[in-house]
Every structure is written in structure tokens, then in C-alpha cells.
Amino acid sequence: MPDQYTSIVWEIRMPRAILGALVGGALAISGAAFQGIFRNPLVSSGILGVSSGAGFGAALAILLFNSTSYTYVFAFFFGGLAVLASYLIGRVYSSTTPAIMLVLGGVIVSSVFSALISFAKYVADPYNQLPTIVYWLMGSLATARYHDIAVGGIPMAVGISGLIAIRWRVNVLSMGDKEARSLGIDTVVNKGIIIACATLATAGAVCVSGIIGWVGLVMPHIGRMLVGNDNKVLIPASLSLGACFLIFVDNLGRLITGSEIPLGILTALVGGPFFVYLLKKTKGGGW
Amino acid sequence: MLEVINASFSYKRLDVFKNINFRVNEGEVFCIVGPNGCGKTTLLDCLLGILSLKQGEILLNKRNIKIISPAETAKQLAYVPQLHEKTFPYSVIDIVLMGRAAHIGLFSAPSPRDVAIAEEVLELVGLTSFKDRPYTQLSGGEAQLVLLARALAQKTKIIIMDEPTAHLDFKNELTVLETIVQLVNNTGLSIIMATHFPNHAFYFENNSIDISVALMSRMTFSAVGSPSEVLSEDNLKSIYSINARVVSHRMDNDSELRQIIPISTVA
């Protein structure tokens, strides 16, 4: 086999596939955990503002340094900062429904960071920086190399392992704070661990791949249709579904046209019809 | 087992209740009766350790509840909530297994022993055949029994219930009451329950359960005692502002079942 084939497979395709699996898995598992603890099947991994925060971080790095080399650090940092801000807003006053306050905090922080992203686009140089920002926001694995795995892989691996370990507690937390507490769970500590793990995983994913929507919302639902609602099984199932789905969609994006289609576009285009097909086939899994 | 001494609670400046004293012994049912908004649920939340008293103390087996961790509390005190909005269609057995949470480590899942306990309590409430059904598809009464089973899976000596028969039809209501009577008689369980149906107290009394009733109104317990002495026409008039008759029905076994009949509001 010619040398360049070996190097294409091992140095370009392989890191891309590994990263795709990690990113898809991280987004899906965080989505599943968040849906559980917020008792809301409509939330996704970005609910606490991690995606918009990371998007702004990346845009800021592109503006400041006119290159993409600092985007990891900035995206990761601002993603984490956004979740922290949501968490603090959620604790501004002690409500009887802390979960709703937290989601509200996420909505506020997301919209602030979205506005900041728009502002960054507005002041960006339209020939050079603006396309870079827009392309980054659409999400892509095209530039994946092994060092991306080293950078994003560590927080993703830590977050994913944490969520796998604590997964059964998500069942109990999904009964609401009062019941979970009466069942013997320290809800503040348990939710804190889950939010921290999901944020690490999502921020790690977003900083290497850009913003990829849909996976964190829908993979957990596909998981529910296939394996049921028990998070003991659902959380690992979401992880592997997200991983497989993203590798598949990434390959599709690379192959169907001459130039690559950004991942963020294809995940919804492919995932939507597949979701409807599963709905019909499994009758929704008890909803 | 559970003792409440001089308990007061307030949200910021709004007093909810004060000077509440009572104790619940083994095998006893303690019914808290009172009008809407009198603070019954808040009192239960304090007993569960979800809210903290402003003054006074709650002793659970002689230890102040403030210094007991949630896991430790859940091993001594279980809670059956009012029927609630169901979010995810967990199977019945998954719901009951949640009762084992206090016994399961942070990074663990239920063991075969936990599953055996869950199956055993499902049998106790007569829902063994519902084990794998989605909890969202159960009727109100069945769902209430599942929540009772979940509390039983905690293997505690005390269960706290908030309106266990709200929204249930006659048959389901009686099923829940009969299950409670059976449990108290067979296992020496103690039950603290808030209810809008003072007639339940007469039901328990008639089934020779050791029962006390507390009338809660104007931020405190205005009377505590046996159903026959506390649930009088005068007391009902004073706490609910209603005219009511307490009548007596002779049962087949020659016992008397008292019942309250609400007649009219007091102008």
C-alpha cells in the first residue's frame, strides 16, 4: 500500500473518527444527564449556556489573534464561565423550584452570549475573520488531528466517566428536589457533580469541534425508544448512540459532495428523518 | 420515635406556624387535619428536613434532625408525596428501586438485594404484576400505591404521607386506607399524615388502630387527641367555619363507624 494511503488513514481519518466518537458521545451523554436532572425532555447539553459561551470565546480568540490557535482555550474557558454564571443566577435567591431557576439562568446567559457573538461578527473583518467565525460556529471535525484529542479528550473523558459512574442517581434526581432529598440524596452535591461533569464533557467537545446541535437533544430520546428510561442503561446507550451517529454523519458530510458540509448542518438534516422513523417504529417508548 | 418540641416556622417575615408539640410512637397513626393553607405541608417539609425550623426542635429517635444527613434521615423516615406530575415513563420497579437510594453508594446502582426488596414491597401493596409497566400509564390509585411501595422499600419505621388519597375515587381511596391499616397492624409502622378527609381518622379508629388527630388552624395545633374527642361538631365549626354533623353508622360487627357530614358554610 502506498505510503500516502497509510498516512491518510492513520493521521487524518483515524484522529477524526476518534474525535467524532468522543464529541458525539460527550454531547449525547450530557444531554441525557441534563434531561434527567432538569426533569425536562426538551433540554440539551447546551441548556446552561456552554455552547454560546464557547462560541463567544472562539469568536473572541479569532478577533484578538487573527488565527484559530487560541480558540480551544478561549472556547473552553468561556463555555465553563457561562455555566458558572447560569449556576450563580440560579442561586440568586432560594426558590422552591431551583431547577427552573437554573434553566432560566441558562436562558439568560445563552442570550447574552449570543448577543456578544453577533457583536463579534459585526466588528470582525468581513473577508477574513467573519468567515472563520461563521464556519467555526457551524461545527466541523475537518481539522482534527491527534493533538485535538489530547486537548479536548481529557475533559471529555473525565466528564463522561463521571456521568457513567453517577448515572443511577439521575433517576432519583429526576423525581424533583423534594422527593430526591426525602429518598436520602443530597441534591445540591449530586446535581453539582452532574453539572460539572456534563459541562466538562460538553465544553471539551465544543472547543475542538465548534457548535454541533441536535445530538445532545435527540440521541437521549432515541436511546429511550431503544432501551427505556432507566438512566442506568440509558446513559451508556446515549453515549454510544451519539458516538456512532456523529462518526456516521461526519463521513456523510465528507462524501456526499465535493467539498465538506459542516457537521452542524448535517446532524439535523440526517437526524430529523431518522428520529421520525424511530418514533413510528417504536411508538415513542411510553410517552 | 419522633418528637416535635415547640416548633415554629416562618418564611422571611410571614409566620406559618408556631408552638407545635407532638410525639409519635411506634405503631401509631398521627393525622394532621386543617383547612387549606394552614401550614400542614410546610410542617411535613420540616419533619423531612427539607425546611429548617425557626425555633424549637424535631427529634428523630432522640437525635436532632438538623444534624442528621439526608441519607441517614431517609433510613428512618420515608415520604409518600401527593400524586405528582410524572416526567419520564420509568417502569414501576425502577420507581420502587429509588426507595433504596439511601442504601446505594454515590457511584453504584441497585444490587440484586435491592431488587429483591423492591419486589417484596410491590407484593405487599399487591402490584407484583405491574412490575414492568410504565409508571405513567397507571391509574391514580395504582400510582399512589407505587409511591407507597417506594417508601416501604426504604425500610423505615416511620412514613410521612401528604394527602395520600387526594384525587382518588372511592375504591382506590379504600385500597390505600386498607393497605395502611394492614401495614400498621402487621409491621408496627408509624404513620404521620396530612389529610383533607377527617373521616379517615374515624376509619382508622374503627379499625382499632392507635390513632391521634391534630387539628391545625391559626398557625398551631388547636386540639390533639382521639378522633371521637377532637373531631366534634364545635371544633369543625371553629376550624373550617362550617356547620357539620357527626353521625354514627352501626357496622355488621356491631362497632360504630362515625362519619362527618358537612352541611353548610357558616355565614
Features of the shown structure:
A: 287 residues, mainly alpha, ABC transporter involved in vitamin B12 uptake, BtuC, 0% strand, globular, B: 267 residues, alpha/beta, six-stranded mixed β-sheet, four-stranded antiparallel β-sheet
Describe the fold and architecture.
The complex is a heterodimer of chains A (287) and B (267). Chain A contains eleven helices and no strands. With 287 residues, chain A is mostly helical. Chain A has a single domain (3-285), classed as ABC transporter involved in vitamin B12 uptake, BtuC (Orthogonal Bundle), CATH 1.10.3470.10. In chain A, 53% of the residues are buried. The mean pLDDT of chain A is 90. Chain B is α/β, with parallel strands linked by helices and 267 residues long. In chain B, helix 4 crosses helix 5 (140-153) and helix 5 (140-153) packs parallel to helix 6. Chain B starts with a strand and ends with a strand. Chain A binds chain B through residues 36, 39-41, 165-169, 171-172, 174-176, 178-186, 190, 224, 228-230, 232, 285-287, and chain B through 45, 48-50, 69-75, 77-79, 81, 84, 87-91, 94, 97-99, 101-104, 106-110, 134, 136-137, 150, 154.
Characterize this entry briefly.
The complex is a heterodimer of chains A (287) and B (267). By secondary structure, chain A is mainly α.
User: Which percent band covers the strand fraction of chain A?
Assistant: under 5%
Sketch the major β-sheet of chain B. 6 strands, mixed
CATH topology of chain A: ABC transporter involved in vitamin B12 uptake, BtuC
CATH class of chain A: Mainly Alpha
Counting helices, strands and paired strands, the structural category of chain A is mainly alpha
Radius of gyration of chain B: 19 Å
Distance linking N and C termini of chain B:
42 Å
Question: What's the shape of chain B?
Answer: globular
Helix content of chain B: 25-40%
